């Protein structure tokens, strides 16, 4: 087998494929050809000459950056193959957000898989992660790559939110969610739990919620949480309601207008009590769009690669775990992927 770093190697701009002359999720500056795993801004940047991704990811990028976000785009469905300068590339579902994909790269008998961000939990808003058989080198994220991170069942966290709504009918539950992926997942989980009333959303979530619905994800009745300050008592209609918005929005004037707000935050980091306390979160909801420690290690065992590369996260702990298992592993230490931004 050829050396893996002849096919993919870490560079300051991101993971680079020399024979194919393309980058996977380039993070620094525009490149001629980019293969993008998903639509979060720390992986999907505008300005590249050519972008290859799933149709859903390209739609997300167009929604966020405008139709001219790249010189040219090439949609690639899951399982469909394309040749780039003699390198075979195809995409497999990653289970992170709508359209998220693992990038499978094959050349001279070597198969390498870059997961991008992924999770193994059920998510009604995107395709589930699918392990790629015959993987020689598995390049895994490690956002929650410490044994302390073991996320609870997401349905249980949603039940906790609904119990709080019932127990505090005079308060407005302000739920912090990231605009892409987390917002739509929490909304859909609430619907599955039997909450069919109108959900109020910050305007920053509106465009992406509409995009999800255009891709067949029914989110139920949604209204923009607009506060008309000229109307006396307008904020009272939000008493006892659930309002979803970007976490930062609840600390500005907009968030402070709601009656007796009860701040919540849906994040894997809410498993760290000190983080919740420092953020002023009264009801932490441990709902993550990344694999936790058990999911990371179970996935490596399931894929069973000849070599494990680890990136953007807690690399050292997962490298040590792999070594104790008798696996060959290395940290990539790529920079530019933000651990907090889109988990």
UniProtKB/TrEMBL annotation:
Domain called Metallo-beta-lactamase: residue spans: 31-162
Enzyme class: hydrolase
EC number per UniProt: 3.1.-.-
Highest taxon above the source species: Bacteria
SUPFAM superfamilies according to UniProt: Metallo-hydrolase/oxidoreductase (SSF56281)
A UniProt-annotated Pfam family: Lactamase_B
PANTHER family listed in its UniProt record: BLL1145 PROTEIN (PTHR11203:SF49), CLEAVAGE AND POLYADENYLATION SPECIFICITY FACTOR FAMILY MEMBER (PTHR11203)
NCBIfam families: Xnuc_lig_assoc
UniProt-recorded name of the protein: Ligase-associated DNA damage response exonuclease
Organism listed in the record: Henriciella mobilis
């Amino acid at each position: 087998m050829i050396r893996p770093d002849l096919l993919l190697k870490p560079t300051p701009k991101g993971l680079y494929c020399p024979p194919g002359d393309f980058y996977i999720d380039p993070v620094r500056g525009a490149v001629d050809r980019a293969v993008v795993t998903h639509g979060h801004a720390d992986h999907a940047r505008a300005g590249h000459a050519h972008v290859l991704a799933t149709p859903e990811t390209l739609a997300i990028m167009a929604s966020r950056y405008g139709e001219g976000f790249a010189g040219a785009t090439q949609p690639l469905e899951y399982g469909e193959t394309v040749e780039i300068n003699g390198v075979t590339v195809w995409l497999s579902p990653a289970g992170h957000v709508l359209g998220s994909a693992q990038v499978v790269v094959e050349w001279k008998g070597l198969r390498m898989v870059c997961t991008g961000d992924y999770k193994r939990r059920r998510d009604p808003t995107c395709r589930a992660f699918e392990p790629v058989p015959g993987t020689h080198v598995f390049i895994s994220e490690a956002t929650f790559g410490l044994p302390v991170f073991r996320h609870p069942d997401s349905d249980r966290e949603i039940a906790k939110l609904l119990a709080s709504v019932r127990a505090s009918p005079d308060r407005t539950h302000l739920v912090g969610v990231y605009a892409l992926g987390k917002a739509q997942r929490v909304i859909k989980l609430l619907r599955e739990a039997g909450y069919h009333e109108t959900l109020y959303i910050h305007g920053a979530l509106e465009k992406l919620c509409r995009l999800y619905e255009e891709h067949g994800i029914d989110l139920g009745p949604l209204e923009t949480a607009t506060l008309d300050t000229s109307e006396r008592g307008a904020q009272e209609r939000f008493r006892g309601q659930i309002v979803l918005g970007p976490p930062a929005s609840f600390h500005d004037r907009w968030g402070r207008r709601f009656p007796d707000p009860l701040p919540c935050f849906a994040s894997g980091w809410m498993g760290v009590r000190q983080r919740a306390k420092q953020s002023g979160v009264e009801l932490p909801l441990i709902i993550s769009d990344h694999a936790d420690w058990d999911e990371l290690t179970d996935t490596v065992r399931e894929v069973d690669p000849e070599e494990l590369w680890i990136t953007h996260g807690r690399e050292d702990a997962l490298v040590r775990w792999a070594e104790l298992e008798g696996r060959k592993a290395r940290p990539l230490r790529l920079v530019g992927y933000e651990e907090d931004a889109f988990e």
